[in-house]
């Protein structure tokens, strides 16, 4: 529903929105230009002195205005000549005629009414309301996609067009909401839909001889910096008065006495209206106008990218697969995908099944029907949108499933991102719905983390075992864009215990002219994706450094048969790799946690050492780490010793599984220190865990037992961001 609310108004009124936004962006520059060409109004000059100086130069002066741009003008008559001139706000000297540009008038008219008068103003009001709906619904969609409103600043993943649309929208959202809201307010005022302001009663002067303007006491007390408009008394009308408007209100002044004879204070509504007009036009706040103008300038780009994304979601993708109609298939593959990556996995699966002799039909999850349930088996590949939501192509799957009956065997494979709290949450929802309907399962539901080709291939082997034949799933994704890195230095550990680990430090590779490249921005705990050879599937390693260190540092354990780890361990200084950085914002120390508890094993020490390295504020940091032998694989030993001396590390507890004197695993050391750990957690400590999945499970079980006396559990700590892990 939210997606429709976001898409349809934008598609229907896209041109009107683009015109309104584009003209608004141009007009937003005007206050800055006015500010640069207009003398600055400073305090120290009274309205009485300014008016007297202007009146001395002309036969008759009707009014003096301080326009929203800051330009001070005077309407005058000299003989048969009338006009409006710009004046110096300090001296009252004339600065030349005031003549607004015709081009500016045209743009203003186009912005306010599309150049169509009253009917056009109605259209502009509708456009403003539409803009507000589109922006707010877009933010809601983005928040849902990223894992909630608190995660709205998370990195946006997906295709380039998808990321461009989301990033631009996120940056421009505040400006667009303010512009649309203030535009609606001003439209309501135009059509008299707002409460009417009070009107100053018609005052009458005493009728005596007029004093010189400079001697009018009421005007002497008003500074030009506070003036909005001064209407001078007409000397030909015996009882006429001076009228002055300021931000504080309006007053009438007797020209014979110089005293206020009537006044009207500004209401709250008047003040709000003034703020609204300042925010919308930027007149009086040039810098703010530029900011909102840049937001408005993004609308045409958002419109174009939005239309492209909308069209992509509705355009069937040509696969080139020899698929069959659902009625003739023995295997049906249903896909729930938003950005298209899961659909690519489905195509790889279909191709492998076809190659082994199966008749395969592929469709979106939304298309589920009785024909699909008549097949021998139903394979569902379901991506999760945001934090547990359904992608667009699966949004109606559950409601349609409720109307169908069938007993075909099913298997569900979830695709998602483990950094989200509800990892593959939609796949679990689908599994529960199928189980409730009584469908038999071929396999236990599995989950693929961040498009892992390795996990997908393992699921394929499991499926092939059930089908009674080998099923090889070699998924090749689009090769990511990489940058060249050159190995600067390495440290080697663990060979003596049969578990080689290397600390590798890279700098930017040089180009063909010998010039060094530039490193992207990254922090310890982010991920380095390494693309080896012709393969498009990257292997990710947690970063032990930040860009402030000037080097890219990773810890790599040599995995038996591991293609990328073997290649990395073979590197020598000067050798080059192709890699890219992926942000991992959920695995970072909290800025507000009073202390940190870091837990890791083996190469998982890398990012934890990076967190210690960055602890310049001397926050208490307690590190628990497990290795094999203190003699051969004590990673970062010297650096951690220095960190203890420099108070960047508060305590270090190690466990070595092959130490003959004191053999232990890291979870054993945690259990032995449970009282101290419980007190740290009681006082708000954050726990960060990095290492193998087996280590992560053992540590989690131990910590869950430790926190139970506090009335807590690990799920609660995880939900609050106080327990985060990066396990592999």
Architecture overview:
38% of the residues lie in helices and 20% in strands. With 728 residues, the chain is α/β, with parallel strands linked by helices. It has 5 domains: 2-32 and 104-195 and 277-308, no CATH class; 40-89 and 198-266, no CATH class; 329-467, Flavodoxin domain (Rossmann fold); 483-582, Elongation Factor Tu (Ef-tu), domain 3; 596-727, Nucleotide-binding domain of ferredoxin-NADP reductase (FNR) module (Rossmann fold). The strands form 4 sheets. It has an 8-stranded antiparallel β-sheet with strand order 4-3-2-1-5-6-7-8, with helices on one face.
Write a compact overview of the structure shown.
This protein has 23 helices and 24 strands. The protein has 728 residues and is an alpha/beta fold.
